């Protein structure tokens, strides 16, 4: 029976919310609370130095803010697009879209063939140096 009483006591929210807790109650930082909320709600003293806000008034402000600032979205809009680039849904679809790399071009020559004569002649000279007879050290 004592546990049931304790559970009821913890489910009761206080009517007065202290200034230190009010920004967290609305899910924002203190600076944003001071700039956006505090000018529009009443505050009152608690004790010698405490300041508090009425929870119901904060809720009313939040409802009005949501009504004024909410962004309407289409009913059938998918708010959770896939995180990977894989878009194939059925088993017959390609699992990854084909992309051409940024460095490649559409016009290609055969692999290993140079299109410039100067590159070919420089390559032949370098190949001759590497594969040619070694020089004697004396």
Detailed description of the structure:
This protein has a three-stranded antiparallel beta sheet. It contains five helices and three strands; from the N terminus they run H-E-H-H-E-E-H-H. The N and C termini lie far apart (106 Å). The longest helix is centred in the middle third of the chain and has 15 residues. The protein is elongated. It has a domain of 58 residues. It is mostly helical and 138 residues long.
Question: Which helices and strands occur, and which strands form pairs?
Answer:
Layout lengths: L1 H10 L4 E3 L3 H5 L3 H8 L5 E4 L3 E5 H15 L47 H15 L7
Antiparallel strand pairs: 1-3, 2-3
Q: Give start-end ranges of low-pLDDT stretches.
A: none
Number of strands: 3
C-alpha termini separation: 106 Å
Strand content: 5-15%
User: Total helix count?
Assistant: 5
Mean of residue pLDDT values? 78
Brief synopsis:
The protein has helices spanning 2-11, 22-26, 30-37, 55-69, 117-131, and strands spanning 16-18, 43-46, 50-54.
Core attributes:
about 140 residues, about 10% strand, 3-stranded antiparallel beta sheet
């Amino acid at each position: 029976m004592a546990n049931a009483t304790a559970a009821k006591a913890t489910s009761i929210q206080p009517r007065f919310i202290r200034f230190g807790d009010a920004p967290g109650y609305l899910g924002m930082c203190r600076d944003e609370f001071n700039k956006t909320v505090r000018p529009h709600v009443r505050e009152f003293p608690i004790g010698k130095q405490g300041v508090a806000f009425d929870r119901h008034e904060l809720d009313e402000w939040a409802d009005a803010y949501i009504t004024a600032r909410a962004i309407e979205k289409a009913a059938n809009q998918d708010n959770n697009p896939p995180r990977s680039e894989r878009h194939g849904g059925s088993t017959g679809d390609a699992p990854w879209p084909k992309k051409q790399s940024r460095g490649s071009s559409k016009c290609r020559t055969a692999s290993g063939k140079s299109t410039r004569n100067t590159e070919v002649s420089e390559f032949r000279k370098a190949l001759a140096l590497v594969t040619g007879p070694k020089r004697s050290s004396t």
